[in-house]
Amino acid sequence: MTLTIKSYGDEVTPEWVEAMMEVLEKATWRQECSLEDVFPTRLLSKLLKDCQALLRKEPTVVDIEVPKDGKINIVGDTHGQFHDVLTLLGSAGRPSEKNLFLFNGDFVDRGYWGVEVLSTLLSWKLCYPDSVFLTRGNHESSSCTQAYGFYKELGLKYPDSNWERVYKLCEGVFANLPLCAVIEDQVYVAHGGLFRDPAPSKGGKGHKAKKRKHWHKNKMKVGNMGQLRSASKGGFDPDNFVPSQLISTDVLWSDPQPDKGLAPNENRGIGLLFGPDVTEQFLKENKLKLIIRSHEGPDARMYREDMKTLIGGYSVDHEGKSGKLVTVFSAPDYPQFAEPDERTYNLAAYVVLRHPQIADPEFKQFSAVQRPQLSVFSAFAEDEDEE
């Protein structure tokens, strides 16, 4: 089999995506293969441009309907673990009009095959734009991709081409990803979770001081879906306290906590910690039944002894009268570059929601498959830092 991906012409077909995945998988096992020869810059650029144009049309919040007798698979962080993504697609089935997918961010960074994962997800999105949905993670940003591996990965895989131009196209794709999704008016899916009411204090003398005070943990209150729907997607770097990006920053970076209330997320230095009472309030006020989020892996939960483990790939973090909040993580045996005695050897999981019981989640677990052991790993991992 020739390890070169052919152009898809005017449209992406399921057959083209299947052939692309097969070529990319075979190429990962051959160190002598140049990704430039396998997946030419020209073709990758076309894929990125076409998908950016498609994503630009989608709103900040995507509303999803699941067909009768259909289902939707919610996938958490995949972090460049291409071979495990192929395992997941083998388990859940290929995308189709009745087998929907929502990939909930963090497609790249921390794993060596971010290009392959991103290309696969974008290709399925172009093939089934109304059945495959991609929501943004905190790693789909300029700051994270330059700090945690994806920027370096492109430079290693396309050293003889204008790879920085390709990276700029990736940035454009990331900036146009929706922040979250609502499924059948019942299920809210976002990478990090909930967000504060961004409304500043009224103007007048001391306006800036009042606005800062409004963000203090004793003054914060949870936002609502109306505010989220009118918010921006966050630009290239939704990771600060600029008022126009406050909602996007919280949605991508926040975490649940066992204690009541809202508090600054001091561990991350960004976003919020929100308690079960806040989850209950958000569900009740927005007439929702379930929240699905990702963002945390088993390594992060090792340092949060007050929270449930993610060794099994998922956890039910909050349960209340109106519904519950769950975390799902879809990268098994994570993180990829950790030393053997530092690995979590976790299972991964994804969530299945079936029509008509759309708010009744099924958790499907899977384990890691064998990965190529490439000499480039050590060089790629040199600059990796803890999130």
From TrEMBL:
SUPFAM superfamilies found in the cross-reference section: Metallo-dependent phosphatases
Active site: 139 (proton donor/acceptor)
GO molecular function: hydrolase activity; metal ion binding
The entry's keywords: Manganese, Metal-binding
Reported cofactor(s): Mn(2+)
Domain of life of the native organism: Eukaryota
Keyword Isomerase: no
Domain Serine/threonine specific protein phosphatases stretches: 39-370
The name this protein goes by in its record: Serine/threonine protein phosphatase
